[in-house]
Design a protein that fits this description.
Structural class: alpha/beta
Radius of gyration: 16 Å
Number of helices: 5
CATH class: Alpha Beta
Number of strands: 7
CATH architecture: Alpha-Beta Complex
Distance between the termini: 14 Å
Length: about 190
Amino acid sequence: MKLIFATHNPNKVNEIQALLPEHIQILSLNDLDYHKEIVEHGETIEANAKIKADTISDLFDLPCFADDTGLEVNALGGKPGVKSARYAGQDKSDEANKKKLLKELKGKEDRSARFKTVIVFKNGDEEKVFTGLCEGEITKEPAGKGGFGYDPIFKPKRYSQTFAEMPASEKNKISHRGLAFQQLIEFLKA
């Protein structure tokens, strides 16, 4: 089965392909030679995932899915949220985003946060939405070399390591993206 993942991000593709059964082949937008940026103008994480899924579904005659993820920090009223990838500016710099977030949390007691991933699957007129949440906290300093994005400063509840310190196999079992994709996988198997 061929399934389009509406992303240009190779980190996401690798993370998800590792979770899928062998008979499901993921095609990224790079594999399809589609290099336009899909403008994510939604006001919620779910709206942005739907925009991406609708755009790609309209262009290609294959089942597809799109995800959007945000980090919601309680002390910042849910920010960066839908703007997580561009929190420190349009260039999507992981380093700049982490620095800005740590600066804004300086001196704050409440460091609780959650990652939220929403996946929108489309196959013709059929549409399904899957949501994964991972509760945790923002550390005071980055730790670990794995993962990407905010992983070095996010420590999930009941764990002593950040996502960036965990082996990918462990992170995938408990992460927001892993949980949302497990729902998608169960749906695809049914």
